[in-house]
Design a protein that fits this description.
12 helices, 5-stranded mixed β-barrel, 347 residues, single chain, alpha+beta, 4-stranded antiparallel sheet
């Protein structure tokens, strides 16, 4: 017994947070993979299209998103529409003896200005497809040029401002930063709790009733020497209720427990009922609430019987009378029920 339960609580706290490391680490790896393989960095921080760069060279250098400053743009007379709404206006310009097409958003070109002397914008650099070459064919007819003639003069690549969404990109960047930051903080906290279990929320909750480190040491010693009652993941010592399950850990001084009850859950698949599990609910002073899920009835009944014998002030069973009694003992934090009653009256 001494060997099996030596520092058993600390070891389970460490094991719990080791398991919790998996998800945020995998998420960060996926996030980094998406960042590099999908060029998300270029999406949020587009490359600057320098004055001497051509669209062909920029495309070959994998500059998918660019920030450009162009001068002397002329409206082609053609627009791009989607579901009856105009989403872009096609312009052409000549820079460094390269003629290319630019698709501007309605706001940037004020819905089709004939000419634009200078504009700075961010866009996606695209290779022309069927729609692009249909546009060139129509422009060639307007100018009385041949298809081959205009294709030899106009770059096969074009800049599309509507395909670069600053609002959508900003929201995506915010999501990545917030979720990635949350994952990173989770990893750091889990590592800290693995190294120093006394800093974990389990021990911080225990600190509500005294010195957390000293109470943890006392609980460890009692569990290692002579546990009074033990199930698969719940232990009771002389002074403590101890939970060490895959769902979490908890240490509660028995004298601080004021209410216990069980709740059954029927597990079924389609019409087949295959099991019933029981959850032990514990309410302790200082507004501490603990749930012990997925236990069998005999274990829960034995634990409730033992706790009620160890502390005769514990209320046993779920009832409205017990709930009101607990509320009377604990008080209502922040007077929540008064607010709820006020809102009910207003409604």
């Amino acid at each position: 017994m001494q060997e099996n339960y030596d520092h058993y609580i600390s070891r389970n706290i460490k094991a719990y947070y080791k398991r919790r490391l998996f998800s945020p680490i995998v998420y960060l790896i996926l996030l980094l993979g998406l960042w590099f393989f999908l060029s998300l960095g270029d999406l949020f921080f587009p490359d600057t299209l320098t004055a001497d760069a051509t669209l062909d060279s920029a495309y070959r250098n994998d500059e998918k998103y660019v920030s450009a400053t162009l001068t002397d743009l002329h409206f082609t007379g053609y627009t791009r529409t989607f579901l009856g709404n105009t989403t872009g206006y096609y312009y052409y310009t000549v820079r460094n003896e390269e003629c290319f097409i630019v698709l501007l958003s309605p706001k940037s070109c004020e819905e089709g200005l004939p000419t634009i002397s200078k504009i700075t914008f961010s866009a996606e650099l695209l290779k022309g497809g069927d729609t692009f070459y249909l546009l060139l064919d129509n422009i060639a007819k307007d100018l009385e040029w041949t298809d081959n003639g205009i294709k030899s003069k106009v770059s096969p690549y074009y800049l599309s401002e509507p395909d670069y969404s600053p609002i959508g990109n900003s929201l995506l960047l915010l999501f990545i930063l917030v979720s990635g930051g949350y994952a990173l903080i989770s990893i750091i906290l889990s590592l800290a709790f693995i190294c120093w279990p006394q800093l974990s929320p389990t021990c911080q909750d225990l600190g509500l009733y005294g010195n957390a480190k000293e109470l943890l040491e006392q609980a460890e010693e009692e569990l290692a020497t002579l546990p009074q009652l033990a199930t698969e993941d719940i232990f009771i010592t002389e002074h403590f209720f101890i939970l060490t399950s895959i769902y979490g850990n908890a240490i509660i001084p028995i004298k601080e427990i004021i209410w216990i009850y069980k709740y059954s859950t029927l597990h079924k698949f389609l019409w087949y009922h295959f099991s019933i599990s029981y959850t032990l609910h514990i309410t302790a002073r200082k507004y501490l609430y603990v749930q012990c899920p997925k236990n069998i009835k005999s274990n829960i009944d034995g634990i409730m019987d033992y706790l009620s014998e160890a502390n005769h002030d514990i209320l046993v069973g779920f009832s409205e009378e017990n709930r009101l009694r607990v509320q009377e003992i604990q008080g209502t934090p922040l007077k929540i029920e008064k607010v709820v009653n006020f809102l009910k009256k207003r409604i």
